[in-house]
From TrEMBL:
Residues 176-526 form the UvrD-like helicase ATP-binding domain. The keyword Nucleotide-binding applies. GO terms for molecular function: 3'-5' DNA helicase activity; ATP binding; DNA binding; hydrolase activity. This is DNA helicase. ATP binds at G197, A198, P199, G200, T201, G202, K203, T204. The lineage of its organism: Bacteria, Bacillati, Actinomycetota, Actinomycetes, Streptosporangiales. Transmembrane segments: none annotated.
């Protein structure tokens, strides 16, 4: 069992090492600042080099609130590498003037033992030391002897870290990553990992650390192709936004599905949205687009001087047929022009002319060729095609074939179609359809790696849209089947991976392997609260085992029925204010304005666009996903469950946001599943 120690001599020596490391980092930073981009040959290279130098300087910043290292490995007698026998593990690499390592980056291969070594498999480590710290200063340490077998027990430094009051945005967990989390974080770039995890098991944290790990390990490859993190809304992105910069990674795109596909939000019937989100829409859209390529009725006639050249209508038909479906739509259109021009050029050559490429281009752009192309392979936008599909019943029927029933087609058609595609109002589900069409026309660029959080909530068509953004890369797919709150929420990870383009156990063209894994130990929600929330599992996800919590948290749950909801709320907020930490009041969406007006204590209402930094936040239930607060006050669960088809799953999300206490206040009887 590791002891939490305050041995003054050892602590003094470690503090000295911290001071030396800090001075060395300052020297490294000064050196980076002194480097000049002038050596680069031209202006553009200078700008690029200056950008890289600036990034390097930023990465070498010392953050006074976090110590440079959080752990130490004392390795056995003869380590196989050139590094010192004693290694300090921290957020970034630090070396002294002679190039000797003072702190090793947590992502370096040698640091793996800090997270994985155990008495059963010491990985060459005799002793592991973990440090506790406050305001950037080392305050305690904990030693684990790995040479004598046995088991280690729970680290107090880990317990302290997860018990600490939550204030402000999410923090990195780099000092306390657990072995099963580390396996996911360090999975190779060529592996797409899918993580099923109960609330608070660290899925989001793990996804962010994996992004940081991959950027460190495959810096060159990923700095070209990029890493993208996709989260459920902007409030959530803002909550997680400081984790990667704290790990020195400032160049990662973080976005929502709407941010990627276009911010379309015209309201629509969830039943219609569900049809639009179904994977069967993919072949319908493909047909809808290619139905625009029609049989050419005329040939091409080009006049150059006194000569006339002709491509007969049947030849045009042959060329169109040979191109159709072999390329994306737009390149196909360009290729058709070039093929027609080539056919003319062949005739010119036969007549003894020797036309060059410029002549071919001129012919390809000639009026006659353009006319044939516009008639047979018209220039289109995704909006034009979708507008036609959703307003023209006969066209929809041709595109749908037997993929959609007559009722589904009827449901898809707009009751009052917009006059033109320009004035059409698109819904969130339409955004994924437009993106699918855009990709059928022109290839979507791919990132090197994509992290998708709350993936259980995405429709098949949204997953396809994300999948094509990591077509030449890999993905980290995170979620919880029990927290699915959309009409199309996933029932299985195999299906999610299939829509993303990663079949489990199969290899994609880029050599990507796929693994589904599970995190089962909760770091957020007290056991008592988690057990209570788990009463909903048989109704929402019977196939999942009840989650376990690392936090005992006795006395963390209280439930009160009241006729005076505002009064009970004010009292509960007052009680929470007397304690440490953040306070989240989760409210049925429909009651948000009323409860905000009734709550006289200072507070802020969370919106989809901002994290909110007030100590007391009112959170509409539909925005609670992914967030956490020390004290959660949950109002009227039955109203939350009644508000939407997936209301019970929404309630499960709301019940699992608390770090320290959950207070449920209700006027209506609790949903039967909770009783
Ligand atoms: N190894 C760890 N050490 C310390 N804290 C951890 C660890 N793993 C997770 N946590 C903390 O537990 C909390 C929950 O983590 P996170 O939000 O990543 O969980 P999640 O699985 O995404 O939850 P949800 O499904 O509810 O969104 C966070 O405060 C996170 O910092």
């Amino acid at each position: 069992m590791p002891a939490h120690q305050l041995a003054p001599d050892i602590l003094a020596a470690e503090r000295e090492h911290l001071a030396v490391s800090r001075a060395a980092l300052t020297a490294m930073r000064r050196h980076a600042q002194s480097l000049s981009a002038d050596a680069a040959g031209d202006w553009v290279s200078q700008q690029v080099l200056q950008g890289l130098l600036d990034q390097r300087v930023a990465a070498l910043a010392d953050h006074p609130d976090t110590p440079l290292f959080f752990g130490r490995l004392d390795r056995g007698t003869a380590p196989a590498d050139e590094l010192p026998g004693t290694l300090h593990v921290g957020r970034r690499h630090v070396h002294d003037g002679a190039g000797q390592a003072l702190v090793i980056d947590w992502r370096a291969p040698v640091s793996r033992a800090f997270y994985q070594a155990s008495p059963a498999d010491p990985m060459g480590v005799a002793r592991r030391r973990r440090f506790g710290y406050q305001a950037g200063e080392l305050t305690a340490f904990e030693d684990e002897d790995l040479t004598h077998g046995g088991s280690l027990g729970t680290s107090k430094i880990l317990t302290d870290e997860i018990e600490r009051p939550r204030t402000g945005p999410m923090r990195d967990i780099v000092a306390t990553i657990q072995p099963d989390q580390d396996e996911i974080v360090r999975a190779d770039l060529g592996v797409t990992v899918c993580v099923q995890g109960a609330p608070g098991t660290g899925k989001t944290a793990v996804g962010l650390h994996r992004a940081a790990y991959l950027l460190f390990t495959h810096r060159e490859k990923l700095s070209r192709s990029g890493v993208m993190i996709v989260g459920p809304n902007r409030a959530f992105l803002s909550y997680i936004s400081s984790v990667l910069p704290a790990l020195g990674e400032v160049k990662v795109d973080q976005s929502t599905v709407a941010g990627i596909l276009g911010d379309h939000a015209h309201p629509e019937d969830p039943a219609v949205a569900a049809i639009k989100g179904d994977a069967r829409m993919a072949p319908v859209l493909r047909r809808a687009l290619w139905l625009h390529v029609v049989k050419p009725e005329e040939g091409v006639l080009v006049t150059r001087g006194v000569n006339r050249y002709r491509v007969a209508d049947y030849e045009v038909r042959e060329i169109v047929a040979s191109l159709r479906g072999t390329t994306r739509y737009n390149p196909g259109r360009t290729a058709l022009a070039q093929r027609l021009a080539h056919a003319i050029l062949v005739q010119m050559e036969r007549r003894g002319e020797s036309p060059d490429d410029r002549v071919q281009d001129a012919v390809a752009r000639s009026k006659s060729v353009k006319q044939v192309i516009d008639q047979t392979w018209p220039k289109l936008t995704p909006e034009q095609v979708l507008h036609r599909l959703l307003s023209d019943a006969a066209f929809l029927a041709r595109a749908a074939k037997s993929d959609l029933t007559a009722e589904e087609q009827q449901a898809l058609l707009w009751a009052k179609p917009a006059k033109s595609f320009r004035s059409a109002k698109w819904s969130a589900a339409d955004a994924a359809l437009l993106d699918e069409l855009a990709d059928l026309m022109e290839r979507t660029p791919s990132h090197g790696h994509l992290v998708v959080d709350e993936a259980q909530d995405l429709s098949a068509m949204q997953l396809r849209a994300l999948g094509r953004r990591c077509r030449t890369g890999s993905a980290t797919v995170l979620g919880d089947l029990a927290q699915g709150t959309t009409p199309w929420s996933a029932r299985s990870w195999e299906t999610v991976l299939r829509h993303l383009g990663f079949e489990k156990g199969s290899e994609r063209s880029g050599g990507t392997e796929t693994a589904v894994t599970e995190l089962t130990l909760g770091f957020r929600v007290p056991r008592e609260v988690l057990d209570y929330a788990a009463r909903l599992l048989p109704s929402i996800a019977p196939e999942l085992a009840p989650p376990r919590s690392l936090r005992p948290g006795a006395g963390s749950l209280s439930i009160r029925q009241t006729d005076d909801l505002p009064g009970a709320l004010a009292e509960a907020v007052g009680r929470a204010l007397a304690r440490e930490g953040s306070i989240g009041v989760i409210v049925p969406d429909a009651l948000t304005a009323e409860m905000s007006a009734a709550l006289a204590l200072p507070h802020e209402v969370l919106t989809p666009d901002a994290a909110g930094d007030h100590r007391v936040l009112l959170i509409p239930a539909t925005l609670a996903k992914g967030l956490e607060y020390d004290h959660v006050i949950l109002l009227d669960p039955a109203v939350i469950t009644a508000a939407e088809p997936q209301g019970l799953a929404r309630l499960y999300v709301a019940l699992t946001r608390a770090v320290t206490t959950l207070t449920i206040l209700h006027t209506d009887p609790l949903p039967p599943e909770l009783r």
